[in-house]
Amino acid sequence: MDCIGTKNVRQVLEYKARLFGSRECLVFEDAEGYVVSYTYRAFDEMVNRYANVLLRNGIKKGDKVTIHLANAPEYLLCFFALAKIGAIIIPTNILSGAPEMEYFIDFSDSVGIITEPRYMDLIGSIRGTCKKLQQIFLVRTSPWYPNDRLYPDTTIITDELKDAAATLTEVSIDVEDDLMMLFNHDPSRPKAVEITHANAVFAGIFGAQAWKVVPEDRHLLTLPLFHINALFISLMPALTAGAAVILAEQFNASRYMEQVRRHRATTASLVGAMVRMILKEPATERDADNNLRFIIFAIAVTDEEWDAFESRFQVRLCDIWGMTETLGATTINPIDGIMKKNCVGLPRLSNAVKVVDKNSADVRTTGELVVQGVPGRTIMKGYYKNADATRETVRDGWLHTGDYAYMDADGYFHFAGMRKETAV
Predict the structure, then answer these.
(1) What is the pLDDT of residues 220-276, one digit of tens each?
(2) What domains lie within the chain, and their CATH numbers?
(3) Which stretch of DSSP H or E encloses residue 372?
(4) 226: closest CA among 258, 205, 195, 204?
(5) What is the β-pairing status of strands 367-372 and 398-407?
(6) How far is it, in rounded angstroms, from Cα 260 to Cα 27?
């Protein structure tokens, strides 16, 4: 048995709700600055109410349900509600157009979609062409609008919550059952990456250990929840440790450091472009006035940008590398060791990483990054409806990433680009 054990995502959340019931679990700030918060107990009870609404409307174990929402508490309530009843979650990019959404819904065999009023024109335009789509669930509706008339043939979850129980019947869910499918960024046609409950539990364990997350931490999450970064680098480690997640509806560089201070954030996750955007904001005398221990980030910045950011905000940057298929952060700069600039760090616990040539032989120069792992536990389960691509990607226990890097004398990895960018 590995470190993951046998507990599924439902069991993890319910255990944390019992252990940290009155502690803050989720703080949400919308685009206008309105803030709402949930304790662990209140969040878990609301998840149960959402799950009961879904069950009442015919969603059951094994059903695929698309979530097409902006960052909001409703996203996470629906995410965990679906996880608790054994349904399979299909997160989609809110910037996707009609052709992409039709593909995502059809290819994933989604029978339902959970969305909000601002996306109803889009969803309505493709509803009739999505073969298996049976139900549309709406959240974030206004209590002042006649929603049943505005959105006929939909289920208004907010209305149905009024008489939904805060307790939930047991559902048999194996830790290696599918939890969700995330579409990757394959330029030819996105593949649906199958992610299990064990994968999510593992992400929580390795993330909490790598970043030394404790219940007193408050993690600021500004990345979109439809992405592996937000779900497995931010959400699951915080949940595993019993820490609080501060969720922003959207990233705003001009408000970012004020949000850090207002919500007493101790950790955060960004990408390189966000680091540069924050740096471009006018400096203030309060820039270093924050509680941040570190900021996890992916996609490199220059050495000059790195130094300027750390100096101005008095916070360490922790560079990482990973992908959806490897469950997010796979190499990590050690926060209790040497953190090298523009270096993606050392392999996380439970996975080996190496560099190989086109014949899969180890090399000491630049080559392809490959990750050793167990499908469905420490790496993805596979590609949905694409056994050939799965076999091509996972060979002899090693996941071939298509990303290129080299390893230095200390065993740290340095990213060198993707296959299409690298003449190797």
Answers:
(1) 999 999 999 999 999 999 999 999 999 999 999 999 999 999 999 999 999 999 999
(2) 40-182 (3.40.50.980)
(3) strand 367-372
(4) 195
(5) antiparallel
(6) 12
